[in-house]
Design a protein that fits this description.
74% of the residues lie in helices and 0% in strands. The chain is an all-alpha fold. It has one domain: ABC transporter involved in vitamin B12 uptake, BtuC (Orthogonal Bundle). Helix 4 packs antiparallel against helix 5 and helix 4 packs across helix 11. It is globular and about 75 Å long.
Amino acid sequence: MSERLVVGQKAPADPIGGLMRMARAVFLAGGILPVVLVIAIVGFGAAEPRFLTYDNMFNVTRAASYLVVVSIGQMLTLLVRGVDMSIGSTEALVSVCVALCMATVLGSFPDSPGLAITLGIAAGLAVGVAVGTVNGIGIAVFNVNPFIMTVGMLSILSGVALTVSGGMPMYGMPEEFSRIFAYAAPFGIPAPVLFAAGLYALMVYVLNWTPFGRRIYALGGNGVAARLAGISTRLHTVLTYAMCSTIVAFGGVLLTARVGTGEATLGATHVLESITAVVIAGVSFFGGIGRVGSVVLGAFFVTLVTNGMNLLRVPSYQQLIVLGVLLILAVVVDQLRMRMLQQQRPE
């Protein structure tokens, strides 16, 4: 005889169903990042006792700050259904230009390291603005596919950086540059971490509290609807790519301070790492979905995995295999998540 629910009687609790609904909500909000982050911490911590030590976590946090900066820039392009494959070569060209400018100014004014640092950073950021503007115009005005446009720029920028530097490290920067931007630690916090935290706070404000940020999400979510709503899609695409490359240029400045020389090969791994960090953080390749906080965790996760593999002495070429697998997994999960979100919308 089937049981009937008496009027006024509460339905029996369903803990398993509740957990499944909670897991689904977490997955739709943040993808698989929380799960893989816990697995990485537990797995590497069990395999290598040095992994969870304070000194190692301190180094991971400092190293992750550079990838955080670059990944935030990459996030912007994905939000408008694009991608920037030229970020590594942008960092390289910025590094060369910063070193060249600082060395030239310091040679003319040896007692003015502050002037050399200021003009060098300004030159690096100007390179970023120029690169992003060219990328944006090619994509928005001439309708070049974002992948093709930025891969072409990758080749161009790498060639320019190698030509200017002659393929050799460039020296002559003020010592104060590295001391302030790479190795200073106010209140025990590394300077790169503070710069990354400041950028994070700025981008949270821009994307969540300004009309420009809302238009970026609208453009990525539905370009036709955004255009019909009066948003200049071409202008905002150009501005988005310009902002991306400017942020990446800032990351290039910080990396240049860290190595202490202008390097034409700087940031070579950041293309793969940044895309992996952004996609695994839940930023959709389909545009319009993603949070800055999740991207920060995604960059920390990628750095954490790389650090763990280094401690376990995994060869560098095998590390590339792992990063490639993570990227493919993240894209597959992103597609599954998008289908689930589309099924949920009519409800």
